[in-house]
Amino acid sequence: MPRLTLEAILLVDGYNIIGAWASLQRVRDREGLEPARRQLAEALLNYSAFQGFDTQIVFDAQYQGSPGNREVITPNLSLIYTDYLQTADSFIEQVCSRFRNDLRKFEQRLIVATSDRAQQLTVKGYGAEWMSALQLQSEVEASVHRIRGKQNQKSRTSKRFLINSLDPAAQQRLAKMRLG
């Protein structure tokens, strides 16, 4: 079965977002970059699934001396570590450049989340959408509230009737008794 096209590709400038969100700054300063990267991925996990985004968090690995790699977390979320001597900005610019000439642009959006002003102008120049770090944080928090609201609504409706608290076998027996 072919994979459904997700609504948008969301490229996230990982270290830029970590530096912009106060909660992630605290984690980075107290515990290090790895816990901050993990917390950013966790924050974007449900958001990506809820929005129907193919989210790719891009981290600089330019000083690591190792080849770049992609770590797939879920079908909606992956972590990308750039190649040696490549920045997250240059990686994002390359993706935007290729996407500009890609036919997917008629069916799918490309959004870049960063608060880097130069990156914002470059991204828009390629025809992609731009989202600030604080706007992304706001949208992630709003999606958490919407998801919780939907979960609470489902639990309230399912608990509304006593029969819903019975196991399926007991429900069938009661239905047989009711129908004679």
Task: Give an account of the 3D structure.
- The protein has a single domain, classed as Rossmann fold (3-Layer(aba) Sandwich), CATH 3.40.50.
- It has seven helices and six strands; from the N terminus they run E-H-H-H-E-E-E-H-E-H-E-H-H.
- It has helices spanning 14-20, 22-31, 33-51, 88-100, 117-125, 133-158, 168-179, and strands at 8-13, 53-59, 69-74, 77-81, 109-113, 129-131.
- Strands 3-4-2-1-5-6 form a six-stranded mixed beta sheet, with helices on both faces.
- The longest helix is centred in the last third of the chain and has 26 residues, at 133-158.
- The model has no long low-confidence stretch (mean pLDDT 86).
Q: Can I get a quick summary?
A:
By secondary structure, the chain is α/β, with parallel strands linked by helices.
Descriptive terms for the model:
180 residues; alpha/beta; Rossmann fold; 6-stranded mixed β-sheet; 6 strands; 18% strand; elongated
The number of helical segments is: 7
Helix-strand pattern: EHHHEEEHEHEHH
| Backbone structural class | alpha/beta
Tell the overall outline: elongated
| CA gyration radius, whole angstroms | 22 Å
Main sheet makeup: 6 strands, mixed
Proportion of beta-strand residues: 15-25%
Regarding CATH, which class? Alpha Beta
Question: How are the elements arranged and paired?
Answer:
Layout: E1 8-13, H1 14-20, H2 22-31, H3 33-51, E2 53-59, E3 69-74, E4 77-81, H4 88-100, E5 109-113, H5 117-125, E6 129-131, H6 133-158, H7 168-179
Parallel strand pairs: 1-2, 1-5, 2-4, 5-6
Antiparallel strand pairs: 3-4
Helix pairs in contact: 1-2, 2-3, 3-6
